[in-house]
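Re: beginner question about structure tokens

> Can someone show what the tokenized structure looks like for a real chain? I only ever see the sequence side.

Sure, here's an example I had lying around. Input first:
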Amino acid sequence: MRVAVVALLGFVWTCTSTEDEPSDDGSAQLHRYIDEQLFDDLSTFVAARTYRGVDLSEAQVVANLQKLQAELLRQTEQFNETQKVHKLTPFEWKKTINGQEYWLFGVRVGSGPRRVALSSHLDTVSPGNQEGWEPFKLVKEQRTYLGKEQEFYVGRGAIDDKGPALIALNVLKAVARQYDGDSRLDRLTLEVIFDTSEETDMSMHHYLEDKPEENPDLGVIFDAMWCIRAEKGLERPVFTIQRRGSAPEPGPGARVWIESLDTPKGPANQIPDSATAVIRSDSPEALQRFAQQVEALYQGHGFDDPAYRRAPLTVDTSGLADNRLVLKTSVIGAQHGSAPDENRREGTNPLVSLANFLSAMVGSHLERNEISELSRFLTWSWGTQVLGEHHPDLLLRHDEVFKEGKGTTYAVTRFYTQPAGAPGTAARVELDIRYALGHHSVAWDGKTEGLVGGKASPSRFQETFAELLRRFPAEPGYTVAFQTTNFFPPDVRLPESTAFRSVSRAFEQVLGEACPARAIGGGTDAKGNTNLIAAGALFTENMGPPINYHGFNEGAPVEDLRKSADILYRLLTDEVTGTAKSSSTARPLFTPMRVAPDFH
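And the corresponding structure tokens:
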């Protein structure tokens, strides 16, 4: 494999210690890297399986991340062979906290007190399982995006976040090559940071807490879209229903019931690939009759919205001889847990479709049991809606930051029958909630940046869900319970702040317009540190097709990577030349957080 610095080795030396203004050769070299080498490098990175929580052990994930680290070190060493003065210096940080090892690494150049960082991550979400999707083989495709046909690199991690990670590294290389031997590079430290667990435990937050002297004065979390001024809070409730002590009394005639309803094992922040229900009966004839009509029943079912797009349903009758009918629905569209509104608008959640349908069949075609009752609770509470429209006084919230239609969202992402480690539990369901200011216990004052109310301030969901369950008309003998955990409050930045203006200035210099000030649901490594701004690599909030963030056929628009590279290059060169206005020397407002698996 050619290495990432091939294009940089032919660089024409123009920058000297006389501090003359540099030419645009660094930018040209960066574009050459994207045109000639990025695909090959990204192919190697995509091939490394760095997802957690499904079929890989932690040791396997770490070993694959170590291979990527070794490749980055090799590229760094080769790059340094042609550097005269300012060489890239690798660094690494590891620490075990409460039995969990946190780890990140990176490279830096310069030795000055002002620190400017670009941060990305090398872990990914799980690949999913869809016919024709080869997640670890990078391919080139033409896709329609932002009104025109564009080239995409398609593979797991292409946009989240291995593609941006390679862009960040090569931006740093271009700046280091451009200013090699220039004394201005001694006035600051530029660095690229690679988190190894952003999708799960977020090592970055622990690193910044452990190493306050290494906190950036300005940092770009290169793992979202341009530019983020607010991130919603994150709540993770789990609703359960206990096994009944005895089965319900059988009614007259044959019985048909839901034996299980399950999604594939996966993170709560990912809308599931599919949902599968197993239907049983005490009468082969009754099960056969239901099998013959279930597809028509599903297609004719009236959901809570006539315009609702139901998930594709497959009916597997191959097990009827063994008294087994299998119903399976499949996902369409965006799968990021922070974007259920986009999924509903342009795709569909397979669990929502199947649970709503099955709960409606109880009494006419199916017997009631714990699975159907928990499905009925989901249908009563949310139906197919994702903003809390069924119970607006409890669940619907939006505000001046998270506008109407972009307020609190509810993604129903996991359903497990007889979950492991819970012998008394018949079923459990998990939600990913990204919440607006109105669902937090502390009001935002309109001027203070950072986590609203501080890291320890809770949401209002404990009392919200208690009231929701109090109102739920549960059937006699069935009890739905819940536990909910708040992982962080909403995080708000002021667009007029020094950090945001620094990033926006570079954006405007490259594209000729101000950077959007977006308020999003996703949780990034910027959360909790007011000197960090999440920005790039995307120029849209759309997380569904053709990008498919966290989904099948994940794709990185190459033009977005190219424009992002230009902006980051401008940001760092402005820092070197002193064009950027100095940030405050005060330490950032930093509130380290308790984090949890799959909170991105």
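Each token stands for a local structural state, so reading them left to right follows the chain. DSSP finds 14 helices and 23 strands in the chain.
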